[in-house]
Structures are given as C-alpha cells and as structure tokens.
Design goal:
By secondary structure, the chain is of the alpha+beta class. It has one domain. It is 25% helix and 30% strand. It is built from 3 helices and 5 strands. Strands 1, 2, 3, 4 and 5 form a 5-stranded antiparallel beta sheet that branches. Strand 1 and strand 2 form a beta hairpin. The N and C termini lie far apart (25 Å).
Length: 101
C-alpha cells in the first residue's frame, strides 16, 4: 500500500470516482477500525490521479471525512462527486468537510 491512508483501509466500497468540478477523484472505504472514510486524490493534467489518497482536510490526523455510519459516508461521497463548489460550501463548510482546490 502506498500511504498512511491506504494502510488503514480494509475494503474499498466505491472505487475512484471523478469529481471533475473539484479537480479530484474520490473513493469510499471501510477502515480497519470499522469506520468509513471518504478519501480524495488530486486530478492530474493527464486525466488520472495521484497514487496517494488523503482524508478531506489535508493534514495528518485530520479525520473530518471519517464517519461511524456507512450511510453518512455515502451521503458525503455522493455529494462530493455531484454537487458544485458553491453547494458543497453551503452544506459542509461549518463541518470542516468542504474541499477547496
């Protein structure tokens, strides 16, 4: 596995999905601790993504995009890949879950 986030992944529930409006890819995982995470990887100019996956928020230890319930993680994952930047900000900014490019 290529990074710290991958080392905690037990199962990938939704494979890499493009969120072009945000310039990234997202995936949904179940972690070894039984929690669920939405992870992101920046979109490359070539159209692919970086090999490393990160939790939303950036810094090591930041876990705002880790959820106890799969339904909550799926809701965030679906919003991330479908909502515009403005819609994401309106819905998630106060929770620290907004991804800015």
């Amino acid at each position: 596995m290529s990074d710290l986030a991958d080392s905690r992944v037990d199962e990938i529930l939704e494979d890499e999905t493009e969120a072009e409006q945000h310039g990234l890819y997202a995936r949904l995982t179940r972690r070894e601790d039984g929690r669920y995470a939405v992870e992101i990887s920046p979109m490359l100019q070539s159209g692919g993504h970086e090999e490393q996956w990160h939790l939303v928020g950036g810094s090591v230890g930041y876990d705002a995009s880790v959820f106890d319930a799969e339904a909550d993680a799926r809701d965030y994952f679906e919003d991330l890949i479908s909502l515009s930047s403005e819609e994401m900000e309106a819905k998630y900014d106060d929770q620290g879950l907004w991804v800015s490019r």
